[in-house]
Amino acid sequence: MSYAWLGAAHLLGAVLLGAAIVALWLIDERIRRATDCGTIAHAGRRADALGRRVLMPGVLLLAVSGVWLVASYYGGWRFLRVPWLAGMAGLFVFQSAWANTVTHPHAKRMRQLLAGTRDVDPITPALERVRSEPLASFGQHLEPAVFVLIVALGVLRPMDWAVVVLGCVTATLLAAAMTFYVVRPLAPSSLSSASVEAEGGS
After folding, report:
1. pLDDT per position as a tens digit, 145-162
2. Hey, where are the domains in the chain?
């Protein structure tokens, strides 16, 4: 297959993966803000469908075309000497491993806790604990940051390992900052105490 066709397939895979990551991030935000089991269950079903129809085709297309490009045009294993290319490949593998070890098991636990609930049922303490797990929240923000970094490496093609490392550190710190902002226990406690005081005064 020619370089042009492989490049087009790789670009299509990147578009599919990027669209899926953005859509899943929005779905995760809806789950985080939900106040009933029905909203979470509906969002979870949408995420599952998106994963099957968009995410997985994008990942497979990227993997196949990427391996083919490396084998045919970048000297096989010699690509490890090219910082931007090795960085892209390493981040892609890391992102896939994170999804299989953190994201998917977290979604499975959510589905198990939602089994047997009704749409109008309030969120149980157990479901809330799983929903607000810091590691899952960190991954929610890390995946878009890593994808942006992968695209940036492919576009800018830096030949300095320091630039690749700096990009990884920046993406990690950005995801950590977003996670801290999301999971910090600030508003709920103050609001609950204020509502209790208001009820007592009335």
Report:
1. 999 999 999 999 999 999
2. 3-185
